[in-house]
Design goal:
Layout: E1 16-19, H1 35-39, H2 42-48, E2 52-55, E3 59-60, E4 72-76, H3 83-95, E5 99-104, H4 114-119, E6 132-133, E7 160-163, E8 168-171, H5 186-201, E9 206-209, E10 226-228, E11 231-232, H6 244-256, E12 264-268, H7 274-281, E13 290-292, E14 301-302, E15 305-309, H8 314-327, E16 335-336, H9 346-349, H10 357-369, E17 374-378, H11 399-411, H12 416-426, H13 463-468, H14 473-486, H15 488-492, E18 494-498, E19 505-512, E20 515-522, E21 536-540, E22 555-559
Parallel strand pairs: 1-2, 1-17, 2-5, 5-9, 9-12, 12-13, 16-17
Antiparallel strand pairs: 3-4, 6-8, 7-8, 10-11, 14-15, 18-19, 19-20, 20-22, 21-22
Helix pairs in contact: 5-6, 10-14
The protein binds 1-deoxynojirimycin (NOJ).
Pfam family, one: Alpha-amylase
GO molecular function: alpha-amylase activity
Domain Glycosyl hydrolase family 13 catalytic: 18-432
């Protein structure tokens, strides 16, 4: 959007910090992070300078997918604490001038949610709250291929599960314990909206909406095109489905309209295109403030998918980000992220987590945060935390990874070594190892046994060490966040990509009211010449003054 510093929404100047509660801080020694653990670490967030905390799910849940399977939207899981703890957290964040955005997981519930439990009864009024269908015509329930469609679930296997009680199947795009809600039913939508209002009335400042662009399905439920075996990609029937804009506009009216402009909404949208994102985030349409798109985090996926990793080509990254910056320049808004609880650690992915860990983590941060959009920092990213570097299958906990391993082993393709290499590169547990607070046992995360191993590098990579070192990744993130707060050109300046074909240097300008920032990032461990004219140095990740060439993983921001 072409806002001015005077009329731009507050979140154009804001930085969001994601807390994955299970892995952040454990206050009671059960090995799992909790709300009181977060309350004990607010100084860290305040010192970093972030404006908003996005809290991954803390609701009652059987934890099949670490809380993204909710059995009660209006209760806190005892594992994380109580509603009173959450209210205390909201108040404590507000006292410090920070906001709290909750995760909203309403594409699906848990199969243990009372709505679904009731829905298993074919005569129940809740039957139509989920997607129940008989077996494929002419086939017996349970026979191979009898599922109502041939769609594959995101977590392997068919997206349909047979329920013996009625002999019908229910749809689950994720695990079989995550049945999809039927958004065609207005009673479902009303129940979701009233739950959202209940949270806003409790002081919550907005929502990060889990896979929200999957809620509208093509009601004909057509088969997808089979690529291998019996299963197919059904995404054409549910990614940004027929009624998605209608549902989000209706939600906006029912939940957000008339509320003060303090809120933030961000829709997680796998498969969203730039054109669609522009519509979703066009303020005039009143749907969501911004979306999480997935293009840049798919650039290192090979033909075999996310576990079939290949090196990033920097030109692809520039072409992708550049397209999003241009498409949302006049209408809409970007969110900017490298990491979250589903992605590997960026310093291990696109940087060098060995010799140049500090330099590459700060370079990647510079490039991301100087784009136009709202940056998201995932817990530990501000410390330059690295991938887990697990070497054994039994170290993994994530359902997606475990299901992938089980299927790969059944099919028998590839060696264990290749399988381990794939999951070590892109598995979601890379981001889920405990937050590294200090050099004490278990990195100060817990006094008990952590639910997943702590990264072995915690004696050197931890918050206490980073805070004590003025040249650390942590202090660099502080400077970047402060720059966005203080300098309107960072929030609102126009974006122009430079050197689009350079294989190692990422370069662009931001311009506003006669000020130009030139941003440079060296995506390599070698010295790179840029040939660019540069002004005064505003920020850089090397301590000594800059020459004309970029040193290994060097980042700089110049002003002219
Ligand atoms: C996206 C979430 O970020 C991920 O962790 C989860 O597994 C799926 N949605 C299903 O809720």
């Amino acid at each position: 959007m072409s806002w001015t510093p005077e009329d731009a929404p507050w979140w154009t100047r804001a930085v969001v910090y994601q807390v994955y509660p299970r892995s952040f801080a454990d206050s009671d020694g059960d090995g799992i992070g909790d709300l009181r653990g977060i309350l004990g670490r607010l100084d860290h967030l305040a010192e970093l300078g972030v404006d908003v905390v996005w809290l991954s799910p803390i609701y009652a849940s059987p934890q099949d997918d670490n809380g993204y399977d909710i059995s009660d939207y209006q209760a806190v899981d005892p594992m994380f604490g109580t509603l009173e703890d959450l209210e205390e957290l909201i108040a404590a964040l507000h006292d410090r001038g920070m906001k709290l955005v909750m995760d909203l997981v309403v594409n699906h519930t848990s199969d243990e949610h009372p709505w679904f439990v009731e829905s298993r009864d074919p005569d129940s009024p809740k039957r139509d709250w989920y997607w129940w269908r008989p077996p494929r015509a002419g086939m017996a329930a349970g026979a191979p291929g009898a599922e109502p469609t041939n769609w594959r679930s995101f977590f392997e296997g068919p997206a349909w599960e047979l329920d013996e009680r009625s002999g019908e199947y229910y749809l689950h795009l994720f695990s079989r314990k995550q049945p999809d809600l039927n958004w065609e039913n207005p009673a479902v939508r009303d129940a979701v909206y009233s739950m959202m209002r209940w949270w806003l009335d409790r002081g919550v400042d907005g929502f990060r909406m889990d896979v929200i662009n999957l809620i509208s399905k093509d009601i004909a439920l057509p088969d997808g095109v089979v690529t291998d075996g019996l299963l197919a990609d059904g995404s054409a029937s549910y990614v940004c489905g027929p009624r998605i804009h209608e549902f989000l506009a209706e939600m906006h009216k029912a939940v957000f309209a008339g509320r003060p402009e303090r809120l933030l909404t961000v829709g997680e949208m796998p498969g969203v295109t730039v054109e669609q994102a522009r519509d979703f985030t066009d303020p005039a349409r009143e749907e969501v403030d911004m979306v999480f798109q997935f293009e840049h985090v798919g650039l290192d996926h090979g033909p075999g998918g996310k576990f079939d990793v290949r090196p990033l080509r920097l030109r692809d990254l520039k072409a992708s980000f550049g397209r999003w910056q241009t498409a949302l320049a006049d209408v809409g808004w970007n969110s900017l992220y490298w990491d979250n609880h589903d992605q590997p650690r960026i310093v291990s992915r696109f940087g060098d987590d060995g010799r140049y860990r500090r330099e590459s983590a700060t370079m990647l941060a510079t490039v991301l945060h100087l784009h136009r959009g709202t940056p998201y920092v995932y817990q530990g990213e501000e410390l330059g935390m690295t991938n887990a570097h697990f070497t054994r299958f039994d170290q993994y906990r994530d359902i997606e990874t475990l299901n992938h391993v089980a299927v790969a082993k059944t099919v028998g393709t590839g060696s264990d070594e290749d399988l381990l290499a794939g999951i070590a590169a892109t598995g979601r547990d890379n981001a889920r190892t405990p937050m590294q607070w200090d050099g004490s046992p278990n990195a100060g995360f817990t006094t008990g046994t952590p639910w997943i191993s702590v990264n072995e590098n915690y004696p050197t990579v931890n918050a206490e060490a980073e805070r004590a070192d003025p040249g650390s990744v942590f202090h660099y993130y502080r400077a970047l966040i402060a720059l966005r707060h203080d300098d309107p050109v960072v929030a609102l300046g126009d974006f122009t990509m430079l050197l689009p074909d350079h294989e190692h240097v990422y370069a662009f300008t931001r311009r506003l009211g006669g000020v130009t920032l030139t941003v440079l990032g060296n995506f390599s461990g070698e010295v790179q010449e840029t040939g660019l004219e540069l002004g005064e140095l505003v920020l850089g990740n090397y301590p000594d003054p800059a020459g004309s060439a970029l040193r290994p993983w060097e980042a700089r921001v110049h002003r002219s």
